[in-house]
């Protein structure tokens, strides 16, 4: 199985009232292209912290993160920012849309190239996620599910191979959740690597590979769903 993103013996901690608190301890995790990977665990297990490390937003205390085979240890802030912009798409539970701008502008502003190309790319992505008729609506005029699909379009505007999603269905109803999970599946089938942090068992059940954290340590991983015609996807 090819690896798009890999964590090797990642550990991180913080100091509270003079005491060291370990958040992650020797975590290994891999995300493959063509695959939806779920990261699950109880609240406080370190899921979101690990996602920030994997997304190159926070450096681990020890261990390393490799993106497309490249060790990111020691890269400058500018180099890390460029990797995040061009190679990683982020989707968050709270959407993080700019309320004063339209859906189209929210997506286009994230584009790394020329403005006109960004607007065309944004419009095509909004069409893809079923919001072609909502391009000129502001976030406050959209449902939660629609806002999350705008956020997904924004995450994809620079055509990143990797998508990281932190509790993306936490604020959605069952119907909107199903739509979003189907979009994740389509992206994986097109070759993207998708990593979803979730406490929702339905989301985990839809994944190809499931990793579990328990107290910041890797627990026994589950097999993802069994899929006929899965083209030999690996399971952990």
TrEMBL record:
The keyword Chaperone does not apply. SUPFAM superfamilies: P-loop containing nucleoside triphosphate hydrolases. Residues 7-236 form the ABC transporter domain. Keywords: ATP-binding, Nucleotide-binding, Transport. The keyword Nucleotide-binding applies. InterPro entries: AAA+_ATPase, ABC_transporter-like_ATP-bd, ABC_transporter-like_CS, ABC_transpr_LolD-like, MacB-like_ATP-bd, P-loop_NTPase. Residues 226-236 have a biased composition (Basic residues). This is ABC transporter ATP-binding protein. The lineage of its organism: Bacteria, Bacillati, Actinomycetota, Actinomycetes, Kitasatosporales.
């Amino acid at each position: 199985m090819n690896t798009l993103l890999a964590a090797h013996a990642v550990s991180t901690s913080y100091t509270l009232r003079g005491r060291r608190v370990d958040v992650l301890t020797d975590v290994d995790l891999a995300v493959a292209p063509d695959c939806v990977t779920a990261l699950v665990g109880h609240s406080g297990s370190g899921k979101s912290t690990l996602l920030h490390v994997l997304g190159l937003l926070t450096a681990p205390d020890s261990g390393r993160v490799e993106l497309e085979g490249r060790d990111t240890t020691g890269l400058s802030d500018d180099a890390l920012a460029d990797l995040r912009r061009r190679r990683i798409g982020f989707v968050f539970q709270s959407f993080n849309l700019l309320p004063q701008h339209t859906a189209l502008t929210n997506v286009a502003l994230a584009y790394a190239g020329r403005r006109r190309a960004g607007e065309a790319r944004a419009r095509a992505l909004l069409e893809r996620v079923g919001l072609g008729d909502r391009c000129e609506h502001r976030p406050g005029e959209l449902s939660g599910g629609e806002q999350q699909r705008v956020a997904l379009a924004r995450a994809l505007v620079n055509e990143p191979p990797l998508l990281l999603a932190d509790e993306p269905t936490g604020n959605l109803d069952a119907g909107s959740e199903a739509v979003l999970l189907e979009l994740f599946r389509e992206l994986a089938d097109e070759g993207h690597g998708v990593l979803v942090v979730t406490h929702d068992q339905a989301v985990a059940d839809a994944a190809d590979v499931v990793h579990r954290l328990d107290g910041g340590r890797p627990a026994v991983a589950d097999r993802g769903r069994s899929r006929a015609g899965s083209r030999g996807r690996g399971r952990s």
